[in-house]
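Deliverable D2.4 — example input (structure tokens):
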């Protein structure tokens, strides 16, 4: 028998479909069915995987009916974004555009409008893909991930959440309820850069940067790089090289020289060989830093 492994209109497996109406009901189902269950949020990742038999869950738990998880709210600690917030809502949110424009820039780069109207930020992060476009801005901004299970709510930093390709810090019966994204420092300039095969494709490399200037020197710098290591990573050596310096062309050149030492692209990854990712991550880091600095300079 030939097994169809193509992304057609057909989901070729049988599964039981659950629509919990509350957090605790969802957690109960996740605990009960364990590895046989998969959460469905927007479905833009899971459904193609099921069509291609890369995922064959016996139980699909649609969490869209759980109230309160699509919020975008300002709080004293930062903007609280529910796991079910659509990428399109993040792209268009006036609050996010004003307070954390890096997030709306990154969300707006994802797939097509149709994908962004379905796909959620929680789904983007939970795929654990090193190329997930929301991962780098959340990492550059030191976001907190909120997780819920039978034991109650807990939180971890986004850096602790990513454990490597295909792996995130979520145990059995746990799921993400949302994120708190701290406001960038006052006067911050931010930028998101991405290169892919086409504008609709996932990133071959993506970079997010946050920079502030004080007295003409770099006061704060964070750079996050995606699709060039098994998990999204911070360019810590490049950040350290720039902090305290005037952001001259030479200082930027010196800083991005460190990017290659921060990334670990894999030979077997499709889309681009390691050397392409090393060079592109350096070039995109330069572009993201340059744009962030230009934007930071616009602050009085
Ligand atoms: C044509 C196309 C283009 C795309 N382009 C891009 C792109 O440019 N950039 C990019 O980053 N991605 C892209 N994607 C991938 C995908 O659309 C995004 O990653 C999207 O954000 C996934 O969200 P979702 O809600 O659809 O996830 P789903 O498919 O519903 O879920 C994905 C995974 O996350 C798990 N999950 C979902 N929510 C939770 C939760 N709250 N807690 C725990 N686990 C959870 C699910 O169990 C599943 O394993 C593209 C996909 C397609 C089909």
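Example output (designed residues):
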């Amino acid at each position: 028998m030939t097994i169809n492994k193509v992304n057609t209109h057909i989901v070729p497996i049988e599964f039981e479909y659950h629509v919990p109406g509350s957090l605790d009901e969802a957690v109960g189902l996740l605990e009960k069915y364990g590895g046989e269950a998969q959460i469905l949020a927007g479905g833009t990742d899971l459904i193609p995987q099921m069509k291609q038999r890369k995922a064959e869950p016996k139980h699909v738990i649609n969490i869209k009916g759980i109230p309160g998880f699509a919020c975008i709210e300002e709080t004293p600690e930062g903007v609280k974004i529910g796991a079910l917030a659509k990428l399109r809502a993040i792209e268009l949110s006036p609050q996010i555009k004003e307070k954390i424009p890096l997030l709306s820039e990154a969300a707006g780069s994802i797939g097509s409008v149709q994908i962004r109207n379905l796909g959620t930020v929680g789904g983007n992060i939970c795929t654990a893909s090193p190329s997930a476009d929301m991962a780098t801005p959340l990492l550059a901004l030191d976001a907190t991930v909120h997780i819920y299970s039978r034991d109650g709510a807990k939180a971890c930093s986004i850096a602790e959440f990513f454990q490597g390709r295909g792996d995130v810090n979520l145990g059995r019966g746990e799921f993400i309820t949302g994120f708190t994204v701290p406001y960038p420092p006052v006067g911050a300039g931010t930028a998101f850069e991405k290169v892919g095969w086409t504008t609709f494709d996932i990133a071959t490399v993506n970079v997010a940067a946050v920079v502030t200037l004080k007295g003409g020197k770099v006061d704060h710098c964070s750079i996050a790089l995606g699709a060039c290591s098994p998990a999204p990573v911070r360019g810590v050596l490049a950040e350290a090289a720039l902090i305290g310096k005037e952001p001259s062309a030479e200082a930027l050149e010196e800083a991005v020289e460190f990017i290659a030492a921060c990334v670990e692209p894999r030979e077997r990854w499709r889309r681009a060989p390691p050397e392409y990712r090393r060079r592109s991550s350096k070039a995109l880091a330069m572009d993201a830093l340059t744009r962030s600095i230009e934007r930071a300079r616009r602050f009085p």
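Residues 226 and 232 are 5 Å apart (CA to CA).
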